[in-house]
Every structure is written in structure tokens, then in C-alpha cells.
Amino acid sequence: MKPITNIHELQEAIREMELVQMHRKQALLKQIDVTKQSFKPINLIKSTLRDLAGDKHSRNSLLQTAASIGLGFLTKNMVTGKSASAAKNLLGGLVESGVQNLTSSETIQAYLKAIYKNLFAKKHKDAAPAANDVVE
């Protein structure tokens, strides 16, 4: 920056600095608004789901965890039923923990993935049989 030698140059420099300050203030207010919008609960959920949809490792990990918890809870309920017995509740908790640990094995994971694909994979419609195809 060149040295200011007279009042006219000083006033011009002040105007330029005020203009820069106004632009920075507008940019800051805009960024505050963007940040405020991103912290709304619905936007946090959307961004989390978008991240999970894009990351295959996270999606598989989430499915594995959900399956593990679900199977553990299901087996605990099968063991304990509606019983209020402390012994059955303890046994149910042990079974639940065991099933959750068991579902982390690779064999069980392979079965769960196959079941998931069979249940939720999009079904492709078969093409209509050609005239020369034999239908039995």
C-alpha cells in the first residue's frame, strides 16, 4: 500500500476500507445463516443419511449392528417371554449378548447379507417368452 500524503487520499482509503468491511460483514452474515441452517435437526439427519448412502463401509457396518441388536433382542424375548423372573431375565441377557457376538462372525454375516438381498433387492421382471420358446 502506498503512503497517504493528503486528505483526499485518506478519504479514498477510508471508503475502500469501509467497502471491504461491508463485503466481509455480508459474507459473514451469509455464512452464519448457512451454518444455522445446517444445524437444524432435519438437516443434520438428511446430511447423515446422505453420508451413509454414499459410504458402503458405513452402510454395511450399520446393517451389521442393526442385525446384531435385532437378533439379540429377538432371542432374548424368545427365552424370557413375558416373565418377570430374575433368573430368566439374566439368562435372556446372556443369550442376547451371545447372539450379538455370534452375529459378528463372517459366516453369519454372509447369511444375513443373502437374506437382506433376497428380501430387499429389486426384482427384475422377466421378459415375455419368445414365440419359439417352449413353456412347460
Describe the structure.
- It is a single chain.
- The protein is mainly alpha-helical and 136 residues long.
- It has a domain at 56-120.
- The protein has five helices and no strands.
- The longest helix is centred in the N-terminal third of the chain and has 32 residues, at 7-38.
- The protein is elongated and about 90 Å long.
- 4% of the residues are buried.
- The model has no long low-confidence stretch (mean pLDDT 76).
Give the H and E element order. HHHHH
Beta content comes to under 5%
What structural category characterises the helix and strand content? Answer: mainly alpha
Number of helices: 5
> Gap between N and C termini, in Å?
90 Å
Helix fraction? Answer: over 70%
Query: How many strands in all?
Result: 0
* Average pLDDT number: 76
Overall geometry comes to elongated
Global Rg: 32 Å
Parts with pLDDT < 50 across at least 5 consecutive residues: none
Biggest sheet overview: none
Can you lay out the helices and strands and say which pair or pack?
Layout: H1 7-38, H2 41-54, H3 56-80, H4 86-102, H5 106-120
Helix pairs in contact: 3-4
